[in-house]
Hints:
This protein is an alpha/beta fold. The protein has 14 helices and 15 strands. It has helices spanning 24-36, 43-46, 72-75, 84-96, 106-118, 136-151, 168-173, 177-180, 207-219, 249-259, 330-345, 348-367, 396-408, 433-451; strands at 51-55, 58-61, 66-69, 127-131, 155-159, 190-193, 228-233, 263-267, 291-294, 307-311, 373-379, 382-387, 411-412, 414-416, 422-425. Helix 9 packs parallel to helix 10 and helix 13 (396-408) crosses helix 14 (433-451). The longest helix is centred in the last third of the chain and has 20 residues, at 348-367.
Amino acid sequence: MTVGPAIDDLHFSQEPDVDEVPGPKSNELLERQRNVDSNAVAYPRRVPIALDEAKGATIRDADGNTFLDFFAGIGVLNVGHSNPYVLDAVKSQLDDVAHTIDFPTEARIDLIDKLREIAPGGLQGSSNVVFGGPSGSDAIEGSIKLAKHNTGRQGVLAFEGAYHGTTAGALSLTAGKKYKKGYSPLLADAVHVPYPDPEGTEDGISVERALDAVQRKFEDPYGGHESPAGIWAEPIQGEGGINVPPQGFLQGLRDIADDNDALLVIDEIQTGFGRTGEWFASDHYDVTPDAITMAKALGGSGLPIGGVLYHEKFDTWGPGGHVGTFRGNAPAMIGGIRAIDYIESHDLLSHATELGEYIRGRFAELAETTPEIADVRGKGLFVGVEFVDEDGAPADDLVEAIQTRCYENGVLVWSAGRHGNVLRLIPPLVLTEQQAEVGTNIICDAIDSSTN
Length: 452
């Protein structure tokens, strides 16, 4: 039985409708924000928009301009903004009880059951879930504690290009220097090794070279660090540039972790819940992690919730072994259940796969006549387009210009990559075929006008 409205009925419109941007009301709110909000605010500096309401894959600003959303709150709103099938249950839960710490509720137990059902590989039916704080960073912190507690070791291993969050432990795993500047020291014995270059890349860091670097950190007696408690990897690097590793990489990590009694933790915070055309991106590689970290789309409607799903054999904590005041956000939990139901009912995994192939195909076609496009990559509705200048150097200024032109013409996109030269597209999974075509046309026009 199909649940909720059809995806065509979720949106304000199938096309953007933009007049002057930013308009006067948006400018007023942007100015008020600059006067009182933190200097840490980042997104309005690149996309000067003040939000008023949103539905499906569309957003309206304070002046009534309607945009196609190819950003989805950094991959949070997989079933779209204000999906009524999700929100009806969330509102009902709010009327009953919202804050439950870790006392049992139907919402909590049902969500855990759903997660065990869709978990990757051997985690299906053999996993437990721990909720801690409300963010992806909190989920990473929980996974670090899980690995340390089960191995008795302190070291952690992640990858160059990685982003895992910005709390102290998560920031130790994050590779970006700009996020760490001024905050040292962080966790001791945190090491980063090369992530293989995206699949299809002929030169650069191969799977063999990347795995050799990991293995040496465990097994070389002069590797320079304690053998890590675990390996933390994104199955597709997001902030690092939508880097899709070649086949064999995740399996190689699985083998090294097994050989060295370490945990393999796969960060599915951005790639989970259908984003790549599978429930979890690790499903593309037929690899079962020991643990996966979850947040973003986990709450279904944008409500914050983070958690770690891990093999039950690692559930060695005693009471209070991992805690957090907001680990019982019942509205977010019921939102997560409803989002999973909606994705299943509307076959959004296949839909994401098909639309992603269409969008990447359009950019690949454009690349044939646009030398600035160095690569097009991704899986499902997780799309990256890498840009370089005439000398082959990263062209972050070009990506910023494309982003601005897209915004002016009604499509919201973002960037990624170590040098900011990758256009990142992560629209809601409920994006329609017409919206995909219209939005991609606008993005391609923005690329044309910015490169000619």
